[in-house]
Design brief:
Length: 410
C-alpha cells in the first residue's frame, strides 16, 4: 500500500471507478470493514458520500451531509486526521483530509476492526493525499465529481458562473496562501474570482458583472476570458485591464463589470493593483483591520473615455488581504461587522476564513441573497521563504535576502 501503488492502480481503472479501486486496496491491506470518499460541495458547507461506481445515481440530486458541528468539519478545518471509537469491541472510525495545496477536496473515511498504530495512520494519510491527485486527474473525464458537488440543481446562469471559477478554490505556496468563496444570489449576479501562480508572480482578480441571471453570466464570461487571454499571452496588468475593457465595449451589449486586479512579485513582494469601480479591499495587520483606499477608475466596458492606473498596495509579511464584491455589503447585513469577523477569523486558514465570512452573510440574509456574495482571502507570508534570482531562477532561500521594495501606501 504505497503512494505509487495507489496512483498506478487508480490510473489503470476507468475514471469513474478509480476511487473504488483505492477503497478495495485499503480494505485488503488494512482489513477495513468500510471505506468511502466524501467530496465537498461547491459551497464548502457540506459533503457528499460517493459510493461504488455502480451505485452512484447521477439522475438524482446528491445527498448532502452538513459539516457544521461534525467530525468531518473538524478534520477539514484543522487538516488533521481524527480517530473515533465507541468503546471496546466497536469499530474504529478514521477520517482523514483529502487535500492538495490547501484545496480541501474531501475526506477519506474508514472503519477498522482495531485502533490504528502510527504506521497505519501514515499509510492512511498518504492514501488520502493520493486521492486528491486521483480526483484532480479524473474529474475532467467524468461528470460524477461535478454531480456530487451539486447538492441542488444549478440554473443555467449558475452553471456558467461555476465554470468561470478556478479549478481549485484554494492554493498554498511558500510565499502565500489564497482561497476564494462564492455564494450565488437567488438570481445569479455575475460575480467571479480568479487566481493564477506564474513563475515569479501570483495574480488575483475579483469581478462583478452588472445585472442578473444569464445576461450577467455572459458578461462575466467575456470579462474572465479577456483577462485570461491577455494574462496567458504575457500581458502586463495594465494590458489585461485594457483588453478586458475593450472586449466588454465591443461585445458586452452596453453592459459593464466592476473589478480589482492584483499582481504580487514572488521575488521581492512588489505589488501592482487596478481598481475598476469596485469596493475597496480590507487588510488585517498586527490585529487591526483597515480598509485600503486606492484610486478608483471606471468599470470595464463603460462607454466614456477613460483609462486605468496601476497602483501599489502596501503588503507586508503577516498581512491578510480580503477582496470582496458588493454582495458582502448589502443593506440586509449592515448589522454584520465584517472587520470584526475578519479579525476573529485571523487564526483560520484563508479557506476556512472565506467560508466563515460567506456563511455569516448567508445567515444574515436568512439564506436568500439578493446579490452574489464573493470573497477572496490572501495571506502574504513574504518572499523570505522562497527567493529565486529573477534572471537565472536559482534558489536564493539561504542566501542574503534583498530588502522589500519601497512601496507607497495605497
Amino acid at each position: 500500500m504505497t503512494l505509487a501503488g495507489a496512483l498506478s492502480a487508480a490510473e489503470a481503472a476507468a475514471p469513474v471507478e478509480s476511487l473504488d479501486v483505492v477503497a478495495r486496496m485499503l480494505k485488503e491491506h488494512l482489513g477495513a470493514v468500510a471505506v468511502s470518499f466524501l467530496i465537498t460541495d461547491f459551497t464548502g458547507s457540506s459533503v457528499v458520500r460517493l459510493g461504488a461506481a455502480g451505485s452512484v445515481g447521477t439522475d438524482e440530486p446528491a445527498r448532502r451531509i452538513w459539516l457544521r458541528g461534525t467530525l468531518y468539519d473538524d478534520v477539514i478545518r484543522t487538516q488533521q486526521p481524527a480517530v473515533e471509537t465507541d468503546g471496546e469491541g466497536a469499530l474504529v472510525r478514521v477520517v482523514a483530509p483529502v487535500t492538495n495545496r490547501g484545496d480541501a477536496i474531501g475526506l477519506l473515511e474508514l472503519f477498522l476492526p482495531a485502533a490504528p498504530g502510527a504506521q497505519v495512520m501514515r499509510e492512511i494519510g498518504e492514501t488520502a493525499h493520493a486521492l486528491a491527485y486521483i480526483v484532480i486527474a479524473n474529474r475532467s473525464f467524468t461528470d460524477v465529481y461535478q454531480w456530487a458537488r451539486r447538492t441542488s440543481p444549478l440554473s443555467l446562469a449558475a452553471e456558467i458562473q461555476h465554470r468561470l471559477l478556478p479549478a481549485s478554490l484554494a492554493c498554498e505556496a511558500a510565499q502565500f496562501a489564497v482561497a476564494g468563496a462564492l455564494e450565488p444570489a437567488d438570481h445569479v449576479g455575475g460575480d467571479t474570482f480568479d487566481y493564477v501562480i506564474d513563475r515569479d508572480t501570483v495574480q488575483l482578480s475579483v469581478t462583478d458583472a452588472m445585472g442578473h441571471d444569464v445576461a450577467a453570466a455572459l458578461l462575466a464570461t467575456l470579462m474572465v476570458s479577456a483577462l485570461r487571454r491577455a494574462r496567458r499571452a504575457g500581458g502586463s496588468l495594465l494590458e489585461q485591464a485594457r483588453q478586458a475593457d475593450r472586449a466588454l465595449y465591443e461585445h458586452g451589449q452596453h453592459g459593464y463589470v466592476t473589478g480589482q486586479l492584483l499582481r504580487i512579485s514572488l521575488l521581492d513582494g512588489g505589488t501592482e493593483f487596478i481598481n475598476a469601480g469596485h469596493p475597496w479591499p480590507l487588510r488585517m495587520r498586527d490585529g487591526r483591520v483597515q480598509q485600503i483606499a486606492p484610486e478608483v477608475d471606471m468599470p470595464f466596458g463603460v462607454r466614456i473615455p477613460h483609462g486605468y492606473r496601476v497602483q501599489s498596495l502596501d503588503l507586508r509579511p503577516g498581512d491578510r488581504l480580503v477582496m470582496l464584491t458588493d454582495g458582502m455589503l448589502e443593506r440586509n447585513i449592515m448589522n454584520l461587522d465584517l472587520s470584526d469577523l475578519i479579525g476573529r477569523t485571523r487564526a483560520l486558514h484563508p479557506r476556512e476564513a472565506a467560508r466563515t465570512l460567506i456563511a455569516a452573510v448567508i445567515d444574515a440574509n436568512r439564506g436568500h441573497l439578493k446579490d452574489d456574495a464573493t470573497v477572496i482571502c490572501l495571506d502574504w507570508h513574504g518572499t523570505g521563504n522562497a527567493q529565486r534570482d529573477a534572471a537565472t531562477g536559482a534558489d536564493l532561500t539561504n542566501a542574503s535576502q534583498p530588502s522589500q521594495r519601497d512601496k507607497p501606501t495605497a
